[in-house]
Design brief:
The structure is a single chain. The strands form nine sheets. This protein has a seven-stranded mixed sheet, with helices on both faces. A five-stranded parallel sheet has the order 7-6-8-11-12, with helices on both faces. It has a four-stranded antiparallel sheet with strand order 21-22-24-25, with no helix packed on it. The protein has a domain of 125 residues: ANL, C-terminal domain (GMP Synthetase, Chain A, domain 3), CATH 3.30.300.30. It contains 20 helices and 30 strands. The structure holds 5'-O-(acetylsulfamoyl)adenosine. The site of 5'-O-(acetylsulfamoyl)adenosine (7RM) has 22 residues, from helix 11, strand 20, strand 24 and strand 25.
C-alpha cells in the first residue's frame, strides 16, 4: 500500500502556537507526579532499564502466579510477564470488594430517557459472575470468542468482565455499525455466542440492534447462540433454538463464579479497527500488559483518586471506551459515569447536566464533541454548576488551539489542566500526553511520551528529522499494552506496522517535534480517515460505494471539516459513464450508511467521468485530496497519466 501513502517529506507544520499553561499549583501539589523534574526522572528510569522499570510497575496488578520475565522480545512479537497468572475481572472487581470499596459505586449509569442505575463494586461483581455463569451454560469456554453488540448499558461492561472472568475473548462491535459490519467481524473472530439487546435509546428513537444482529447471524453461521438483554422492554422476534433471553437464562443461576487464573499473555479481547485495506483488522490485546497500561495511565495521566467521579464519554464500542470506561477506571477502583444516549437529548446541555448532577471531577471527550459544543454556544454550559471538574482530557484527533482554549475557559473555568492524549486502538492505552501536575501544556500538542514510550519523528529513510520538521511518527521500543498481532493474520501485523520503517512500529500518523521536544500530531498520513474521532478506512468506504449497482469505480479522500475534523469526499464513476443527479448522490450516501454504519456516510459525492491515475493504474488520491480541500495549487502531477482528467475534475468540483 506504500503507493497510497503521502510522502512524509510533504508533511509541513503550519502551527505556530506559543501559549504555555503551567500546571496549577493546587493541582500539582497533590499530584502523583508533581513536577517536570519528577516526570523526567521517571522517564529516564523507564528507558534506562525497561525490564526493571516494568517489573516494579507490575506490582500495580493482582497476580495469581508470579511471572518470570518482564519482556520477551522476538521482534516484532512481544510477550510481557511470561509465566504470570492473573484475571482481569478479578483485578477490576474482587480486589476492591475485598476492601472498603465494596460498597463504593463503580458505575453511575444514566439512560437517555433519564432512568438511572448505580452499581457498587459488590453489585458489579455479582452481576458479572451471574453473566459468566450464563455464558458457561451456553457452552462458552476459555479461548472462545464472544461477540458483544450492545447499547451503552451496564450489561455491556458486565458482559466484557464476564468473558474476562472465564477466559473468553470478547469482541465488542459498536452499536452504530451495520448488520454487514457485524457479520464480517463475527466471521473473522469466529464468535460462538453473540450478546445483543432488544434495542437502545438514541435521540428518543430505538436503535434496532436485534434486527441487525439477526441479519448479521444469517451470514455468520459460527454464531450458535444469541443472548438478548432486555433494555427497551419491547418484544423482538426470537429464533427458537438460537436466541436466549438473558433475564430468563439468568434466573436461579449462581451469583458466584471463581475467576480463572489465566496466562499473562492470554488474549483479553479482539477489537476491529480500520486500516488501509477494505477488511478491518482484528486487533488482539492480551491480559497483563494491556491491564497494566490501562491501570498506570489512570494514575499518571488522570491522577485518579478514590473520591473522584470519572467520565469518559466514549462509546465502549471504541478502544477509548474499553480502556477508559471499563478496564482502566475499574482496575483502580474508581467511580465511572456511563451515559447511554446523545449529547443533545433532550437538550444541548445534557452533558453539563450530567456533570453537575453526578459531580464529575474528570471529564474526557473528543475534539469533535468540543467543537460541537463551541457551535452550540456558551449558554448551555452556563446553565450548570461545573465547579466539580478538576481535570479535562481529549482524545481521538488533533485538537485545534481555539477549541482547546474554549474547553479550558468555558468548561474548565480556567482552573483545570487539559490532557491531550495521543494513542490508538493498537497501542491499548495513552502513550503521549501531559501529566497534569507536571507538564506545562501548549494548546494543540500532546506534549511528551509517557514512561516506557520511545516515539520519534522520522523521514523516508527512517532517520530522525530535525526539530520542527514533519515526518512519520514511529515507536522505537515495545510497550506492555501494545497489540500482539492481528487476529488470524500475523503476516499482516508485520507488514502493516513493522515494515515501512524497519525495526520500528509505524503509527500511520504524521507529526513533528518542537524545540522543547513536544510532539504535535498532524493526523493520518495513510489511508485512514478520522471522522468525528471515529476511525474509518478509505478502502472500506470505497468498497461499500462500488457495491452500489450503478457505481463502476470510486476513490474516497478526506477534506478538512470545521466540526468533524475530517469529512469524507467520494469521487464516483458511474457504470456506463454519465453524471448522477442529487437523488443518486443521496442514495449512494445512504447506501454507505447502511453498509458500514452512519459514521461512514460521505459528506459529499462528486461524480466524474474518470479518476486521475498513474500510468501503472494507481489512483492518485493525493491529487483528489488537493481538489477536495480546495487547494489553489495541485501537487506534483508528473506521474499522472492524463492531465486533462484532473483539470476537468477540478473545474467541476462542488458544482451541482
Ligand atoms: C484512541 C483512538 C487512532 C488515531 C491516531 C491519530 C488519532 C488519537 C489523538 C490523535 C491527535 C490526539 N484510537 N489520534 N488521539 N491525533 N491527537 N490526542 O482514537 O484507533 O480510533 O485512532 O487517532 O491519528 O493514529 S483509534
Amino acid at each position: 500500500m506504500a503507493g497510497r501513502t503521502a510522502p512524509p517529506t510533504a508533511i509541513e507544520s503550519v502551527l505556530s502556537e506559543t501559549r504555555l499553561f503551567r500546571p496549577p499549583k493546587a493541582f500539582a501539589s497533590r499530584a502523583r507526579v508533581p513536577d517536570l523534574a519528577s516526570y523526567r526522572k521517571l522517564y529516564a528510569a523507564s528507558v534506562r532499564n525497561p525490564g526493571a522499570f516494568w517489573a516494579k510497575q507490575a506490582g500495580a496488578l493482582l497476580w495469581r502466579g508470579r511471572w518470570k520475565k518482564a519482556l520477551t522480545w522476538d521482534p516484532p512479537f512481544a510477550k510481557w510477564f511470561v509465566g504470570g497468572k492473573l484475571n482481569a475481572s478479578e483485578n477490576c472487581l474482587d480486589r476492591h470488594v475485598a476492601t472498603a470499596r465494596r460498597n463504593k459505586v463503580a458505575i453511575r449509569w444514566e439512560g437517555e430517557p433519564g432512568d438511572q442505575r448505580n452499581l457498587t463494586y459488590e453489585d458489579l461483581l455479582r452481576e458479572t459472575c451471574r453473566f459468566a455463569n450464563v455464558l458457561r451454560g451456553l457452552g462458552v469456554r476459555a479461548g472462545d470468542r464472544v461477540g458483544i453488540y450492545l447499547p451503552m448499558i451496564p450489561e455491556l461492561p458486565i458482559a466484557m468482565l464476564a468473558c474476562a472472568r472465564i477466559g473468553a475473548v470478547h469482541s465488542v462491535v459498536f452499536g452504530g455499525f451495520s448488520a454487514e459490519s457485524l457479520r464480517d467481524r463475527m466471521n473473522d473472530a469466529q464468535a460462538k455466542v453473540l450478546v445483543t439487546a432488544d434495542g437502545g435509546w438514541r435521540r428518543g428513537k430505538i436503535v434496532e440492534l436485534k434486527a441487525a444482529a439477526d441479519a448479521a447471524c444469517a451470514g455468520a453461521t459460527c454464531v450458535e447462540k444469541v443472548l438478548v438483554v432486555r433494555r427497551t422492554g419491547r418484544d423482538v422476534p426470537m429464533t427458537a433454538g438460537r436466541d436466549v433471553a438473558y433475564e430468563e437464562a439468568a434466573r436461579g443461576v449462581p451469583t458466584r463464579c471463581e475467576p480463572e487464573a489465566l496466562d499473562a499473555e492470554h488474549p483479553l479481547y479482539i477489537l476491529y479497527t480500520s486500516g488501509t485495506t477494505g477488511k478491518p483488522k482484528g486487533i488482539v490485546h492480551t491480559t497483563a500488559g494491556y491491564l497494566l497500561g490501562a491501570t498506570k495511565t489512570m494514575e499518571w495521566v488522570f491522577d485518579i483518586r478514590d473520591e473522584d467521579v470519572f467520565w469518559c464519554t466514549a462509546d465502549i464500542g471504541w478502544v477509548t471506551g474499553h480502556t477508559y470506561v471499563v478496564y482502566g477506571p475499574l482496575s483502580v477502583g474508581a467511580t465511572v459515569v456511563m451515559y447511554e444516549g446523545a449529547p443533545d437529548a433532550p437538550e444541548k446541555d445534557r452533558f453539563w447536566d450530567i456533570v453537575e448532577r453526578h459531580r464529575v471531577n474528570i471529564f474526557y471527550t473528543a475534539p469533535t464533541a468540543i467543537r460541537t459544543f463551541v457551535k452550540w454556544g456558551k449558554d448551555y454550559p452556563a446553565r450548570h454548576d461545573l465547579s466539580s471538574l478538576r481535570l479535562l482530557g481529549t482524545v481521538g484527533e488533533p485538537i485545534n488551539p481555539e477549541a482547546w482554549m474554549w474547553y479550558h475557559e468555558t468548561i474548565g473555568g480556567g482552573r483545570c489542566p487539559i490532557v491531550d492524549t495521543w494513542w490508538q486502538t493498537e497501542t491499548g492505552c495513552i502513550l503521549i500526553s501531559p501529566l497534569p501536575g507536571a507538564t506545562p501544556t501548549k494548546p494543540g500538542s500532546a506534549t511528551l511520551p509517557l514512561p516506557g514510550v520511545v516515539p520519534e519523528v522520522v523521514g523516508d529513510d527512517g532517520k530522525p528529522v530535525p526539530k520542527g520538521k514533519g515526518g512519520r511518527l514511529v515507536l522505537r521500543k515495545p510497550w506492555p499494552s501494545m497489540l500482539r498481532t492481528i487476529h488470524g493474520d500475523p503476516d499482516r501485523y508485520v507488514s502493516q506496522y513493522w515494515s515501512s520503517v524497519p525495526g520500528s512500529y509505524f503509527t500511520g500518523d504524521g507529526a513533528h517535534r518542537d524545540k522543547d521536544g513536544y510532539f504535535w500530531i498532524m493526523g493520518r498520513i495513510d489511508d485512514v480517515i478520522k471522522v468525528a474521532g471515529h476511525r474509518l478506512g478509505t478502502a472500506e468506504v470505497e468498497s461499500a460505494i462500488v457495491s452500489h449497482p450503478r457505481v463502476a469505480e470510486s476513490a474516497v479522500v478526506a477534506r478538512p471539516d470545521e466540526l468533524t475534523g475530517s469529512a469524507i469526499v467520494a469521487f464516483v464513476v458511474l457504470r456506463g459513464g454519465g453524471k448522477g443527479d442529487n437523488a443518486l448522490e443521496d442514495e449512494i450516501k445512504a447506501h454507505v450508511a447502511r453498509t458500514i454504519g452512519p459514521v461512514a456516510r460521505p459528506a459529499q459525492v462528486q461524480f466524474t467521468e474518470l479518476l486521475p491515475k498513474t500510468r501503472s493504474g494507481k489512483i492518485m488520491r493525493r491529487l483528489l485530496r488537493d481538489i477536495a480541500s480546495g487547494a489553489k495549487q495541485l501537487g506534483d502531477m508528473t506521474t499522472l497519466e492524463d492531465v486533462a482528467v484532473l483539470e476537468r475534475l477540478r473545474a467541476e468540483y462542488g458544482e451541482e
